Amino acid sequence: MQVIKKQSGAAFKLKKGQKLKVIDAEGEQVSDMVLFNAKDRREKLSSGKTMDFEESILISSGNFLWSNRSNKMVEILEDTNGRNDFLLAPCSPETFEVMYDYDGYHPSCFENLYTSLEEFEIQPDDIPTAFNIFMNVQFDEKGKISVDPPLSKAGDYVLFEAKMDLIVALTACSAEDSNNGSFKPIHYEILT
Ligand SMILES: [Zn+2]
Q: Diameter of the chain by CA atoms?
């Protein structure tokens, strides 16, 4: 089992057929995930394609995550919590300036994703909308959204199976509102 320390990230390869278990070890902690085709990094995770083909904006067990080239990247085999978000971009330095009026350096998923992915020659501009595991984004009938505390409890996990050879990046999210005001680690495990 691997540990992503609070407010940090990791990137690694996942072969077709391997499984990835992403675990909220302590509860109420979001993990942003992005995926790239290991053989051609221009193919990457697509929120729009996933919601289109899965016919839902809520993505959980039984759903696939799709690429910008309309290929299946992973299948979600298990999801013990069941609430994930695929609407919002990873939190970035600007998130904290624009939305929180924060002055000075603040860690962010965006920075943690692109610095982890540097070794795979993936650039900041390549980062797509992340699949935000355990993130609890609610919306009303008029489309107004709110970021609420995660519903995940300690030990909740999502199990993915790779449908192609992948480069995966994961974070332990750095945004106060997404994690009910405190930052915890994320654990993951690659199962063959
Ligand atoms: Zn974040």
A: 45
Q: How far is the CA of 173 from the centre of ligand 1 (A)?
A: 4
Look at the chain and report how many structural domains it folds into. Answer: 1
Give pLDDT tens digits for 119-170.
Answer: 999 999 999 999 999 999 999 999 999 999 999 999 999 999 999 999 999 9
The residue among 35, 6, 23 whose CA lies nearest residue 133 is: 23
**35 Cα: distance to centroid of ligand 1 (angstroms):** 16
Enclosing domain of residue 26: 2-191
Q: Which stretches does DSSP call E strand in 26-180?
A: 31-37, 40-44, 64-66, 72-79, 131-133, 136-139, 145-148, 156-162, 166-171
Look up tokens 């355990």; give the residue: 134
